[in-house]
Write a structure and sequence with these properties.
Aminopeptidase i, Domain 2; 9 helices; alpha/beta; nine-stranded mixed beta sheet; five-stranded mixed beta sheet
Length: 426
């Protein structure tokens, strides 16, 4: 259990340091550079060398890293793992400062993704993201590292039916309280400017998000569970990237892709439904000097694992799960199936994942939606629309997906790391 908890704590440290996709990519960049990976710019010409590792970022919120085998002549294709950097949150609007009753200062925000709104109430929140600075036109990451905001619930005396179910209006009920009104008409932007080390007048734009201040922790009898924000999908991001940087490829070009905007459909230039992966793979092929036909042969011999967390059976509502495909916390890697192909797993690709797990000596489970309940979708099929190759959707089991704070098993991060390491070593 000690090794499981050690790995889980490192994962939680990564999540705590990554409140937004921009911070996720910054931390991944540091991890890659510490392992000798070099950054390539999309605007530059590329020259890749055998045995070397590289990474490319887009929008500061997505990153694709790859490492070449030492022997270019033996390359059979690409081994890809894809996950996502974003999580449901509230985005701060362009003009954020609001007043209530001429007394309270609050922020104007909007939903990003499909969160469980009630879980954001009555907890300490803060703000992080990026700002664009005038003159230098530079982008600076900011994290107001203090207990700054709260979205207060309405007292039960003012809503006697609150425990019978409430429909929350995001423009009315979910605006965060910031402070008391004063002479300053833009107190929040003053706070952001201070965190960025500039004046308010120097800020030309911002992408700022709320995040819970509660740090991730190990909980439960014998430390069986992890409790943290953003487990979906930073648990898979961390597990895949740590295995990636610590593994030497053999006959495949290893690729670890982390996309932004999965929670809002992936249809951005930095999302899985963009040309980002297609562009990077094509340029790697070009750097190898292969023809278009040879490149397509490499793609045809490739495999992709789409890694995005999965629903575990809920202890209080087990009837919500499928009758026979029932993953549990600490039960290992979850292979996800969907008859209408919202997940890209089929019999052949699912068998590949099972074989990897068996080789890595880690357990695996299967997930399918109840046939009368609509489920979500993820990265696999969206990426496949641009780069067509065999692939499977997997995840790690968790509870309370899209809550402000989610629960997962303490063992499953290590299980995923071990499976990814076997995959990347092929």
């Amino acid at each position: 259990m000690k090794e499981f908890q050690t790995r889980a704590r490192k994962m939680l440290d990564f999540i705590d340091a990554s409140p937004t996709p921009y911070h996720v990519v910054e931390n991944l960049q540091k991890m890659l550079e510490s392992h000798g990976y070099r950054e390539l710019k999309e605007t530059d010409a590329w020259q890749v060398k055998p045995g070397e590792g590289y990474f490319v970022t887009r929008n500061g919120s997505s990153v694709i890293a790859f490492r070449m085998p030492a022997d270019e002549k033996s390359i059979k294709g690409f081994h890809i793992v894809a996950s996502h950097s974003d999580s449901p949150s509230f985005k701060v609007k362009e003009v954020p400062d609001m007043q209530a009753e001429g007394v309270y200062a609050k922020l104007n925000t909007e939903k990003y993704g499909g969160m469980i709104l009630s879980t954001w109430l009555d907890r300490a929140l803060s703000v992080a993201g990026r700002v664009v600075v005038k003159d230098s036109a530079s982008v600076r990451l900011v994290n107001i590292d203090e207990d700054l905001l709260v979205i207060p619930n309405l007292a039960i005396h003012m809503n006697r039916d609150v425990n019978k179910g409430v429909e929350y209006n995001p423009q009315v009920d979910m605006l965060p309280l910031f402070g008391m009104c004063g002479d300053n008409k833009a107190p929040f932007m003053e706070k952001v400017a201070q965190a960025a080390g500039v004046s308010v007048e120097q800020i030309l734009g911002h992408d700022l998000f709320l995040y819970p201040r509660e740090k991730g922790r190990i909980i439960g009898e014998n430390g069986a569970f992890v409790l943290s924000s953003r487990l979906d999908d930073l648990q898979c991001v961390y597990a895949s990237m740590t295995a990636f940087v610590e593994t030497i490829p053999n006959e495949y070009i290893n690729v670890c892709a982390v996309f932004d905007n999965e929670e809002v459909g992936s249809g951005t230039k930095q999302g899985a439904d963009s040309t980002f992966l297609e562009d990077v793979l094509a340029r790697v092929g070009e750097s190898l000097g292969v023809s278009r036909s040879e490149y397509l042969r490499l793609v045809a011999g490739s495999f992709m694992i789409s890694a995005d967390n999965a629903h575990a059976v809920h202890p209080n509502r087990p009837e919500k799960a499928d009758p026979t495909n029932r993953p549990f916390l600490n039960g290992g890697v979850v292979i996800k199936y969907h008859g209408s192909q919202k997940y890209c797993t089929d019999a052949v690709s699912g068998a590949k994942i099972k074989a990897l797990c068996e080789k890595a000596k880690v357990p695996y489970q299967t997930y399918a939606n109840r046939s009368d309940v609509a489920g979500g979708s993820t990265l696999g099929n969206l990426s496949n629309a641009h780069v067509s190759l065999s692939g499977a959707d997997i995840g790690l089991p968790q509870l309370a997906m899209h809550s402000a704070v989610e629960t997962a098993g303490v063992k499953d991060t290590k299980y995923a790391q071990d499976m990814f390491a076997v995959y990347f070593a092929e």
